[in-house]
Amino acid sequence: MKNVQICRELLEQIADFEERELSLSGASSDFSLAKNKLEPLNEVTGADLLKKEIERLREENQKLSERSKSLEVHVTHTLQSNELLQKQIKELGAKPAVVTVSAIQTPLYVI
């Protein structure tokens, strides 16, 4: 009950303030605040907002799909390279490899 009284007092103070401001600005006394309702800046409906959001999500989905395909190609290439390197390691493990040091030009044998 006390909150209701406080709210009413605040509303009365606001109304008094608005009346004072209107009289200072030279507005007529029959000026109605109801006539000056704020109009929306643009006529955007809920359906328009949904369409924009759907379009944004589609674009984001497309970008993520392209990124996923790019990563898939990269991973496939890396796996193939890894497989080839493992195959070469097995082949080199089966026979001794000759490693030369470029500064000395002497063959070093690795077993």
Characterization of the model:
This protein folds into 2 domains: 1-37; 44-111. Helices cover 65% and strands 7% of the residues. The chain has 2 helices and 2 strands, in the order H-H-E-E. Strands 1-2 form a two-stranded antiparallel sheet. The chain starts with a helix and ends with a strand.
Distance between the termini: 95 Å
Number of domains: 2
Q: Which band does the percent of strand residues land in?
A: 5-15%
Strand order in the sheet with the most strands: 1-2
Helix content: 55-70%
Major β-sheet, in short?
2 strands, antiparallel
Number of helices in the DSSP assignment? 2
Structural class: mainly alpha
Low-confidence stretches: none
Order of helices and strands: HHEE
How many beta-strand runs?
2
The chain-level mean pLDDT equals 78
Indicate the overall shape. rod-shaped
| Spatial extent as radius of gyration | 39 Å
Topology, element by element:
Blueprint: H1 2-24, H2 46-94, E1 97-100, E2 107-110
Antiparallel strand pairs: 1-2
In brief:
With 111 residues, this protein is mostly helical.
What labels would you give this structure?
111 residues, mainly alpha, two-stranded antiparallel sheet, 2 helices, 2 strands
